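Researcher: Structure prediction, please.
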Amino acid sequence: MRNIVEKCFALLMLIYLSSGLTGFLAGDSPFNVWRLEDNPLLLTIQTAMYAITLGLIALNWRKFMSGLRPSGWVLALALFALVSTLWSSDPSFTLRRSLVMTATTMFGIYFGSRYELRAQLRLLGLTFVILAALSAACALLLPRYGIDNQLHRGDWQGILGQKNLLGKAMAVGCIVWWSAKGVFPPTLRIAALLACAAVMLMSGSRAAVLVCGALLLIGYGYRALRARPTTLVPLAIIFLAACSGLAFLVKNSNFLRLALLNPNATLTRRTEIWTAVWTAISSHTWLGYGFSGFWAGLRGESMRVAAILGFLPRHAHNGFLDLWLELGLAGVLLFAAGYLRAVGDALRLFRKNHERLASWPLQYLAFMLIYHVAEGPILRPNSLYWAVCVAVVVSTARAVRSGPGVTFATHAGFRLDLEPEPNYLPRRTTGSVGDLHPETGRSAA
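Model: Predicted structure follows.
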């Protein structure tokens, strides 16, 4: 019974971190969801969710402690955000936001240490299919809320309040259900994958469609990573040459930029934002402006960026530039070192296991890299994507470092209350078939 209750809470927490639960409670404005101090109900929900998380961490403290070591770099990044209060341009605001950021990271460690990868995919699959169903119902039954009637007329925004947020969620949902081969029944998996894809297309988010399509194509190419080094090296050279050629064509072809990326050749003015932001970075290169300390509306350095651009962006539209703005080059290097280590663990796990499930860590880490080149911050309080990233890092590292141990067979069906839950990914058994919240700027915590 306790295991079922825990999994139900984990599912509820994942939906909460997507901002799907709180969208309607915030009122008509999609930005009110972040103004927790002006909305006692939202602040109460946040406090309750993290209080329950701490209670579950206490109940599972042995597993949680075993997840601390592989999560060292993500926990260090969260603590660095907390320490940035010392030099932040708005210390009290940075302190509030970084505390919530640390709590989000703690949930990610709990999720990654409490559940092995197969159980994580089950819960994530349910999360995104629920978001897809609720968003479709909201768009069809409550078009005033579920369809954008202002900036992007006719595009679905569902219960997430913004088309790009919905597209991002559905892109991850597609990757989850694609990776879940053998985790869910085939008919259910295909139906859920198509549902997430349909909602993603209705959102009108081009970035989501491009990233999702690229990740699905790359997913089938991961099999080459299991090849011998003598075969892998030539394949890697060919792949890098192809990527370089594509990058050159996109850079030098206005047609491709218009067709693939955006109606505006400046990527919806993203390049202008990046230029203005880089000027701000140059004056606080090493430590940045403190976590959530730069985008202060029409005050401070963000006012100068707004003056240059003629409008006020909510973020840099590049997760790595936002990280540099907040935590400086030190934060960027810490993230880069930890990310490369996580990719190494994911590659080792993939090479020693032939299930489709083994590609999930690689797919999600690739998503984190590709998507945040032109989208919002990587580190964000109450972020589903950061919590999942932490969970992937923890569970992948534990799976790689665990011994051969006991294996269990691939389950074609779906059960919510499987026990026991070993914290490693099983090898393919003999004879089995192997296959292989709204984007915001200045807000209160």
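Model: The radius of gyration is 21 Å.
Researcher: Thanks, that helps.
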